[in-house]
Amino acid sequence: MTDILKSTLPTDTLKKFLTTDKSTRIQALHLSHAWQTGLAHQDLPPVVIRLLGELAAASVLLAGNIKFDGSVVLQLQGNGPVRLIMVECTAALGLRATAHLRDEMPIPENSTLQQLMNPDGLGRFTVLLDPAAEQAGASTYQGIVPLEGETVAAVLEHYMKHSEQLDTRLWLAADADACGGLLLQRMPGEPDATGTPQDSDSAQATWEHCQALAATIKTPELLASGNPDALIHKLFWEDDLLAFPEQDIRWHCPCTRERVANMLRSLGRPEVESILEEQGHVHIACNFCGKPYDFDAVDCATLFIDPDDMMPAPGSRSVH
Known about the structure:
Blueprint: E1 13-19, E2 24-31, H1 33-39, H2 46-63, E3 70-77, E4 82-90, E5 94-101, H3 113-117, E6 124-131, E7 141-146, H4 152-163, E8 168-174, E9 179-186, H5 201-214, H6 219-224, H7 228-236, E10 241-243, E11 247-248, E12 250-251, H8 257-267, H9 269-279, E13 282-285, E14 292-295, H10 297-303
Parallel strand pairs: 5-12
Antiparallel strand pairs: 1-2, 1-10, 1-11, 2-9, 3-4, 3-6, 4-5, 6-7, 8-9, 13-14
């Protein structure tokens, strides 16, 4: 195996490989710092953190393959104690993730995905491929399917097989400290005279070989492997793989104090003053990452001051 084990330092990275016959894609990731940053302002039960982290890892694995400047958005939605789990990862691997709960419904510690989100069978799984604005030739794609599968990995595998016609296997794990993920994906074979991809016997053998090796991985190994190279080396140490440059993953939520201020301005002075009178301050948390923003009476008054009114009048002098 060539140049695959370089560093044992923990990193938030995605590593991508191809088998030498180019018939199977292999990807691995490990998140720690970025994941802990994302959870800093989100108070979620451990079982929900696990689901959110698994979906976040899956979004990075899929975003690593998109061919446009934009993002992959994955959303689980249902009528259970967890109303919504949503993650977004850009082509540059900027990640954000959130979960919204129903306060009136308890969340048992060992609940399954279906128990938490789909007790009535009406849950939905949505995949959105969202190109950046004004990108020539690119359009938004949205796929919505029933929420089928006992795990996040099963939900994604079912979607990729039936909606994208791609054989895909996923191993995902997450807790409050880290996320880990491994993806195998069978690449389309060379097209025949009619343009239909053909799979050779050797490609099938490679696919089965990679699945057999990956099936030996355990959840603690996905979480403990600070460097994806170590995980790939552990599983495929006897195989030559074509390695691609690693990609850094970062937590990125575009919320800022300035954006929140603009939102408050859009509410209007009477509404903001009403909140101040009732609560003494305005407290807003980002709907996506939970980061808090507080505005006191002085902050709120400043929102509605015309910048021109703060400039000295022409010809005036400051008095000291």
